[in-house]
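fyi for ur records
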Amino acid sequence: MTTWTLTAYELPLRFLWKISRNASASKTNLVLQATQAGTSGRGEAAPNVRYDENPALLRAQFDDLLAHGLAQTDTLADLTALLAARPVAHALRFALESALTHCLAARAGQPVWRWLGVPPPGPRVATAFTLPIMEPGEVAAFIAAQQAARFSLLKVKVNQEGALDLLRAVAAALPGRPLLVDGNEAWADADSLLRFLESAAAVPGLHLRLLEQPLPAALAADYRYLRPRVVVPLLADESVTDEADFEEIARQFHGVNVKLMKAGGYQRGIELLRQTRAHGLLPMLGCMVETSLGIWSALQISALADVHDLDGILVVRDEPFGLVQEQNGLLVPVA
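which gave:
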């Protein structure tokens, strides 16, 4: 018998979180707790509007699962069977799976990474730090206020219209700093992106290391055209779904950003990272805007990735759990 509870957390953000498709000053994440024989585990759900997820939907789906036998899911096999019969949003699926996994690992007296059968995480994991979309004139003050220079890799959210000016301002503030540019599907086609990259190459001090999902996921032919022509490696994010064909992904991209919230669980996330490496692609582990619970969970499988973008806790103003600390650009689990 497993007892389940759900708690909503309103999370004010430290700054306006603006990407190409939306902006927000706060987030509502859900925390699930699974308890067996006095031992508990927690998991976090961070709903994403890109996949039509919201807190109300996740709560309704959780209530439906409770009405259809969730309390009888004492093993991961039980939970998997229930979710096959009654599918839910991926963020909720991850919260359910991770809460039960954490509970079962604790009952077995094992660290989560060992229970999952993956290599141990490092004691400190370097993370990128993300700059949201902002006016170019705000960049220098933002970098100073957030002390962003302590991070060896900066991720910059952009849209097509203002990308070049925004990146020019970042390069002026931190010349030569490696940047991961995230378009969140903002460019309309391959040719417009190539024109942007040509212009970016002429910006003094601008070091583009990676370019994440610049075009809509549906534009597979454009990505196949781009891959041999770009000088900046392309990372897939929205293009990797449940039905992802990695032979095809390898024809479109140079790497994959895997997020446990989007994958819908540890098992699927681990499989995606292993498939990424097996196909000669760069494995990256990312996140949504999450508390330290979600980031702590991601750290359990961080040894499977070469690049880590796990700064979701640094966007949250009053992080409630304190499970992970950031020190000089490195993430350190404290629990």
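Residues 125-333 form a domain with the TIM Barrel fold (CATH 3.20.20.120). thats all i got for now
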